[in-house]
Design goal:
Structural class: alpha/beta
Low-confidence stretches: 1-43
Organism: Cupriavidus malaysiensis
Domain Ionotropic glutamate receptor C-terminal: 58-275
Keywords: Signal, Transport
Family: Belongs to the bacterial solute-binding protein 3 family.
CATH topology of the largest domain: D-Maltodextrin-Binding Protein, domain 2
Helix content: 25-40%
Order of helices and strands: HHEEEEHEHEHEEEEHEHEHEEEHH
CATH class of the largest domain: Alpha Beta
CATH superfamily of the largest domain: Periplasmic binding protein-like II
Number of helices: 10
Radius of gyration: 21 Å
Protein name: Amino acid ABC transporter substrate-binding protein
């Protein structure tokens, strides 16, 4: 399981043999007669078979966003998303290979076929669904802020503030829409934004509330800061999957639902958000439950 296979050796490229012209025309007409539209690159695509053939699941994960994805003292990826990725690979019967990503690079990683899936605190939105598919949600959270104590009491306080966000996140989109007069500054990752918060370059940092507890716990001078008492949104996170890979979506959905049923999902949550964790947070969402 620990052996890492180079990307070039995995055999992920797809080469479609060229059919004789008469046979190709016949095949196309037969497909149309059956009511099936031939979509180049989609009808023949089956990432699930590719993964099983290669024996490796390539996963994009965060490397600096605890507790969802970060590196431990041994430089190994760990976190809630990493634990889910490990379970998915194990139940598919393949090894796992990680690729570090940041919020802005998640969609490009999938589009360029450098990973098979992305498990990186990936919020499900209609806009993103136009480019990729998502699994059923496995986590829920909402938009909150870290600011200096006593300065942020209600949403209206944000109207003219300097607000920091991670680039390419739903938080960036939400704040630009809701607070057109605020100055929204996008950073490549959370550590850069938090450094800006400490220096005063921004007045508040916006992120998923579930993530802020762990970030605040490790923030130098944390006693000077606090998490906002209000939440702006309710958001759901899923595994990002290339568009059109219906069998892979179904396989991952089945795995996630089974993890909920057998108690694994609850154990993963308790590991990162339970009473003994760095940032305790009661669990208010279960996989397969109705979305609010």
């Amino acid at each position: 399981m620990s052996t890492r296979t180079p990307f070039a050796a995995l055999g992920f490229s797809r080469v479609t043999p060229r059919l004789p012209r008469r046979l190709a025309v016949f095949s196309a007409l037969a497909a149309l007669a059956a009511g099936t539209a031939l979509v180049p690159g989609q009808a023949l695509a089956d990432r699930l078979d590719d993964i099983r053939k290669a024996g490796v699941l390539r996963v994009g994960v965060f490397d600096a966003n605890p507790p969802f994805g970060f590196v431990d003292a041994k430089a190994a990826p760990v976190g809630l998303d990493v634990d889910y990725a490990e379970e998915i690979a194990r139940r598919l019967g393949v090894k796992i290979e990680y690729r570090a990503t940041n919020p802005a690079n998640r969609l490009p990683l999938l589009a360029s076929h450098k990973v098979d899936i992305v498990a990186a605190n990936f919020t499900i939105t209609d806009e993103r669904r136009q480019q990729i598919d998502f699994s059923t949600p496995y986590f829920a959270s909402g938009l909150q802020f870290i600011a200096r104590k006593g300065t942020l009491k209600q949403p209206d306080d944000l109207k003219s503030w300097r607000l920091g966000v991670d680039k390419g996140t739903t938080q960036e989109t939400t704040l630009r829409q809701r607070y057109p007069d605020a100055r929204v500054i996008a950073y490549d990752d959370s550590p850069l934004a938090l450094a800006a918060l400490r220096s005063g370059a921004i007045q508040a940092f916006a992120q998923d509330g579930a993530k802020l507890g762990a970030l605040l716990a490790t923030l130098p001078g944390k006693e000077q800061f606090e998490i906002s008492p209000f939440t702006l949104t309710r958001e759901y996170m899923g595994v990002g999957i290339p568009k059109g890979e219906t069998r892979l979506v179904a396989a991952i959905d089945g795995i996630l639902l089974d993890l909920e049923k057998n108690g694994t999902a609850a154990r993963i949550y308790d590991k990162w958000f339970g009473p003994k964790s760095a940032a305790p947070l009661p669990r208010d969402f279960t996989i397969g439950s109705a979305l609010k």
